[in-house]
Design a protein that fits this description.
The chain is mainly β. It is about 5% helix and about 35% strand.
Length: about 775
């Protein structure tokens, strides 16, 4: 096997077209493709006989032997096909390795793995190449059930393997070995005994680059301050961060900052004395506030800081290890708050998910820009809006001009339940000296800029603030949410949830909150413990188009209080957020920093898997229903597809040109489309299909096990959007809904010879 063995193929045609076109030894390359197709189609051994065969339960869990894991074969079982272990034994197959042993070498983080092979027969030794595939799994405990899935780490041609700098301290590893020849394999050995490096895992270092972000003054005269950091170096995955703060003094802050300035200029020897001095810093023994921050977040907000005060802030990371929880080194920073009467609301600009600067510039009393801009008090009329006029400004003249009015949302006060807008920057063009800005957010500050088209210089500026929902002027009733809705979530790119504190006369003393985020589509639960003064939580990087349930319980002096819950559904991913990286199957278990040892000739070769990632797949935001098509634009002179058939969501090729026929003699009701093709109960009728009786006509297609009209559903093979069609249980007939795909002129793949395009069929 030559060049094709570096990739993963299940289709001999695509293998020859994509790999062998530009190779020198074309014949050898094509033989390798045939070999790959042959071993994927059929594995060694024979299918066992099944008892109690039934024709009433039909499933097609596999198509070829290669669809089954390890040594399993795809066997017929009545009207079904299922994976099963083969019976019998091919005498040419190598015996399964035994007695797997792992020994640590003198060099740190280096081990040698050995195994024992039975004496090989002459026929087994006659194979061109006998290889050994080594896999591992790891966990924080020695039991195999809590470990990861098996992953291939190296392939050798000798009965041992050396792994250098791949193992991490503090983790238990198990190894297994499979012997493989050109004829196949009998499978993997039993796992080795759990192994752990003698070097113990260290607690994480202190978080790096600790800094202060935006600060804001709340309506009650207290400050909120953002603290942000970079994750520390750690042998084990970080579990969470603990952020604590306490009252300090200006003299303590000055002394600490002076010490840090000295450290930046001293030698290593001189720094040692400073390290001993730094141990004295901390907030042990003080009246402190603490908050637990999840590991995926690298910032948190300190709430309720008194004006004109100094606070010491301490942060450290925690990890789970085989010896229990480890607490990392502490990082320290000081916060100085301003007076409550200051006009500086933001200490530094904050950036929202759109990347826009959200700072609202403050204007002093001697500036006269605001004098020339008349901003009406924001009011509610169907939506929150305000009117802006600069008719008294010198820039407003009889000469016709086009102005650009831009209002940018800055800081918002106490988190509001009401009418939050997705829009952080409102921009509109007008030819008059006035404008109406709609879609504002309650209880927020806005900055205003007015420029002329073609001139980037700002000619007028201003600022205004919106009132809380229940204080906003309106010609009618403002639909404000009340405390009858005790927990509420706003779904943007980041999901923000807020809840109301029970202030009843018999309410217990609240000492914290427990927030649990779950989803029926996932098995894990995200639990966060928050201090009593924080009644909001933010979630990043949630799965798109997925329903979540948030349950909040107050932690009181008597235990857990009454649970509040709400459901929300995340948005579909936007175009600029949806970059899906596709990896070759051979490397799907490796991160970009993993190394793979591959020794076939006695010399070691290290492959950096990060260089093997293919191009990125762009996902578009599209509709999930049938879209009408013009039949006159679909067919060529041979009554086949005139254009390429592609996924409307990711443009992946489904059928190349001139492959399939259009039929309308079959009707079925399909659920509305979604990523994964599951979860939607609403259906619509489909009656126009691209039809084929050969899976070789597809360029890419995905299969789902949802049964409709005694047929399995089809999805896009790349982004799994669907269902886009149906297939019979015996995989002999396929229908792809013409109104659920796109039809485009798609260029041939790189290296492929372009085929002459056939003429379009004339209108009847």
């Amino acid at each position: 096997c030559t060049e094709p063995c570096r990739e993963s193929f299940t289709d001999v045609i695509s293998c020859k077209d994509t790999v062998c076109k530009d190779t020198v030894a074309n014949d050898v390359c094509e033989k390798s493709c045939d070999y790959l197709q042959r071993i994927f189609t059929e594995k060694p051994g024979a299918c066992p006989k099944f008892a109690n065969q039934s024709n009433y339960e039909c499933t097609a869990l596999c198509h070829l032997d290669g669809d089954c894991p390890e040594t399993g074969k795809c066997c017929s079982y009545g009207c079904s096909r299922q994976c099963a272990l083969p019976k019998g034994r091919d005498p040419r197959l190598l015996p399964i390795p035994s007695s797997i042993s792992v020994q640590e070498r003198k060099r740190k983080r280096s081990i040698i793995i050995r195994w024992v092979m039975q004496k090989l027969s002459r026929e087994q030794n006659a194979a061109n190449s006998n290889l050994y595939v080594v896999q591992w799994r790891w966990g924080l405990q020695p039991d195999g059930e809590s470990m990861t899935e098996w992953q291939t780490v190296t392939v050798r041609n000798k009965p041992y393997a050396i792994l250098k700098h791949l193992l991490s301290p503090g983790r238990y590893y198990q190894f297994r070995v499979g012997a493989v020849s050109v004829h196949g394999s009998l499978g993997f050995s039993q796992p080795s005994q759990p192994f752990k490096l003698s070097k113990e895992a260290r607690a994480p270092s202190s978080p790096r680059d600790i800094s202060l972000g935006a600060s804001k003054l709340t309506p009650i005269g207290l400050w909120n301050q953002i603290v942000q950091w970079t994750p520390p170096a750690s042998d084990l995955p970080i579990k969470n961060y603990q952020l604590s703060w306490a009252v300090s003094s200006a003299s303590e802050a000055n002394a600490f900052e002076e010490m840090m300035r000295r450290r930046a200029t001293l030698t290593t020897h001189e720094k040692r004395s400073l390290d001993e001095e730094e141990e004295a810093w901390g907030i042990d023994g003080r009246d402190r506030h603490s908050v637990i921050v999840p590991s995926h977040t690298t910032q948190s907000e300190l709430s309720g800081l008194f004006p004109n005060s100094v606070y010491i802030v301490e942060i450290h990371a925690s990890v789970d290890s085989s010896e229990g929880e480890l607490h990392g080194e502490k990082g320290i920073i000081f916060v100085r708050t301003l007076n409550a009467t200051t006009s500086q609301i933001l200490k530094e600009p904050s950036i929202d998910e759109t990347g826009f600067d959200l700072a609202v510039p403050t204007t002093s009393s001697d500036e006269d820009d605001d004098v020339n801009v008349d901003i009406q008090t924001p009011f509610y009329d169907g939506e929150l809006q305000t009117s802006v006029s600069w008719i008294n400004s010198a820039v407003c003249s009889p000469e016709k001009k086009t102005f650009v009015v831009k209002a940018k949302r800055g800081t918002c006060r106490e988190y509001q339940l009401n009418q939050h807008s997705d829009t952080t920057v409102h921009e509109l063009r007008v030819t008059e000296c006035s404008a109406t800005i709609r879609g504002l957010t309650f209880d927020c500050d806005y900055s205003l800029e007015i420029t002329e088209v073609g001139d980037t210089k700002t000619i007028l500026t201003g600022s205004f603030s919106t009132d809380p929902c229940d204080s906003t002027p309106s010609s009618g009733v403002v639909p404000c949410l009340s405390h009858a809705t005790p927990v509420f979530c706003i779904v943007h790119t980041t999901v923000s949830c807020h809840w109301v504190r029970d202030r009843g006369p018999n309410a217990d003393t609240v000492i914290g909150y427990r927030a649990a985020l779950t989803s029926p589509m996932r098995d894990d639960t995200n639990i966060t413990i928050l201090p009593p003064q924080i009644r909001e939580i933010h979630y990043d990087n949630l799965v798109a188009s997925t329903m979540y349930t948030l349950q909040v319980q107050p932690i009181t002096n008597r235990g857990l209080g009454k649970a509040l819950s709400t459901n929300f559904v995340t948005h579909a991913r936007l175009l600029d957020e949806n970059v899906i990286e596709r990896f070759p199957a051979s490397f799907r278990y490796f991160s970009g920093h993993d190394k793979i040892e591959h020794d076939l000739t006695g010399s070691e070769m290290t492959i950096d898997a990060s260089h093997l990632f293919p191009d990125k797949l762009i996902i578009k935001n599209v509709g999930n229903k049938n879209e009408p098509v013009d039949r006159d634009e679909l067919l060529n002179v041979d009554d086949k597809n005139w254009k390429s058939v592609v996924c409307r969501r990711c443009d992946s090729l489904i059928f190349p040109e001139d492959r399939v026929k259009l039929v309308d003699d079959y009707k079925a009701k399909l659920p509305l489309m979604s990523p994964g093709g599951k979860g939607c109960t609403e259906t619509e009728e489909v009656s126009l299909w691209w039809y084929t009786n050969s899976d070789m006509d597809f360029d890419t297609v995905g299969f789902a096990w949802v049964v409709i009209d005694n047929k399995k559903t089809l999805l896009c093979g790349d982004c799994e959007f669907g269902p886009i069609g149906l297939r019979t249980l015996d995989d002999k007939q396929y229908w792809v809904a013409a109104e659920r795909v796109a039809h485009v002129d798609k260029p041939p793949p790189p290296g492929a010879k372009p085929r002459p395009k056939k003429d379009k069929k004339k209108k009847q």
